[in-house]
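Luciferase family oxidoreductase group 1
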Amino acid sequence: MPDARTPTDPVRGTAHGVAPVPLSVLDLATVSTGGDAVDALATTTEVARSAERWGYHRLWVAEHHSMPGIASSSPAVLIAHLAAHTRRLRLGSGGVMLPNHAPLIVAEQFGTLEALAPGRIDLGLGRAPGTDRATAAALRRSDTAADDFHAEVAELIGFLDDGFPEDHPYRRIHAVPGPVQATVEGGTGRVSRPPVWLLGSSGYSAQLAGALGLPFAFAHHFSARNTIPALDLYRRTFTPSAVLDAPYAMIAASAVAADTARDAHRSARTMGLAMLRVRSGRPQLMPTPEEAETYPYSPAEADFLDRWLADVVYGEADEVTSGLNDLVGRTGADELMITTNVWGREARLRSYELIASAYRLPSD
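C-alpha cells:
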C-alpha cells in the first residue's frame, strides 16, 4: 500500500487513458427542485459508485452550512457512508472548513475514516466558513477563527502525526485512531494517516501550502480569475517536505457534458442561476432547466450569468474534453477535479460518464 501521506505516488502510478492528467470528482450533494436531502445523498452515493466504475481517481465532498441546495454539511459522515459503498476510489473532503472545528476532532474523525478505508482517504482543509456570516458566527463562536488558520493547520498535523515536541502542552494527547497505535505494545504498525491538502480560492492558502510543502487544490470553478496567480504563487513558494518533493496542484473546474450541446447549455444554466442566488444572499434548491430558462433576469443578473458560464466547460463530450485539455495546458495542473453541480441525477451521471468515455479512463 502506498504511503497515505504521499498523494502523488498513487496518482502518478495510475493510468488515466488519454486524459492529460488524472481526473477526479467534486460532489456537493446537490438538492434539486422536486427532490430532497434523501434524494441528494442517494445521488451522491450513485455518483461515487459510478465514478469508481468509470475510472475516476478520487471523489471529494464539500462542507457547506445553511444552504438548502447542498446536503453535504458533514463531510466525515458522508465520506464514511461512501467508503462503505466503494472499493478503491479515493474519498476526501474538499474541504473541511478547519476554523469551524477543533483540530483534535478533525484528526480523530479522519483517523477513524483512514482506519475504515486504509489508504483511500484525503483530508482537504479550507479557511472559509462555507456559509454566510451569521451562520459562521453560530459555527465558530469567534470572529478571529480564520485568522488562526496557519496555527490550526500546524496543530492538526501535530495530532495526525502524533508529533508534538516534548515541551508542547498537547504532547501527551493522542488522536485515536492514529499513529500512536502503531507504536504501543501489541500494535501491528498498520495505522496510517490521511494526506493533508490545502484548499483555496486566493493566494493565502496557496502560499501556506507552498511553505509547508503540501499539495494544493484551487477552486477554479468559482474563482477562475485567481487560478493562475495562485498556482504561480504556490509553485514559487514551494519548499520540499517529508510529504512532497515537488509542487502538486489540482484545480476544480465546472464541466457539463451532454448528448447535445443544447442539453449541456440548459444544464449549465441551472448551475448559473443557483450561484446567482447564492451570491445574492438567497440560496435555494437547484433550479430546473425550465426555471433557469424562464427566470426574469435583470440586465445585471444576465451579465453575471454570462460571465459565470464563460468559466464553465460545457457541450458535447469532445467539446468538453477539448476545453478541459486547454485548461490543463494553461494552468499546468497536475490533476483535474470536475464538478457537475446541475439539476437532476440523470444529467449529472450522464455528464461524468460521457467525459470518462471520451478520455477512455480505465474502467471496471
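The chain is about 40% helix and 15% strand.
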